[in-house]
Amino acid sequence: MSDQPQAPVAPVQAFEPPYYLAVFTSVKTEDQTGYRETNARMEELVQQIPGYLGMDHAQTPGGLSVTVGYFRDADALTEWRTNTEHRTAQRRGRTDWYESYTLHVAKVERSYAFNRTGAAEALAAD
């Protein structure tokens, strides 16, 4: 057990629609050399993009990894997709770190949130 305090676990908040999601689902290879450092750099980079809203990540015990990136608009998502360092990391992912992956991009038209300590809130585009 670690003596390090754990960050609170909570999903990214609901935002006023419309906004965009990039859902990246992957299965990693056994050799993950260099992945952790590159992933930390990608998280640092994406946070610098105007219109980046946040990220959720989960992994199953069987090794399926799901990362959802939230972006205010298509321009922010395009800026992330075409970032030079991100493109380099994508190529390395295909050659070294991923056995398989899928990417789904969606426009959010409705967004809900619930927090036991607060009230449920629904956000919908007009």
Automatic annotation (TrEMBL):
One of its GO terms (molecular function) is monooxygenase activity. Residues 19-91 form the ABM domain. InterPro entries: ABM_dom, Dimeric_a/b-barrel, Jasmonate_Hydroxylase-like. Keywords: Monooxygenase, Oxidoreductase. Pfam families: ABM. This is Antibiotic biosynthesis monooxygenase. It comes from Streptomyces lasalocidi (Streptomyces lasaliensis).
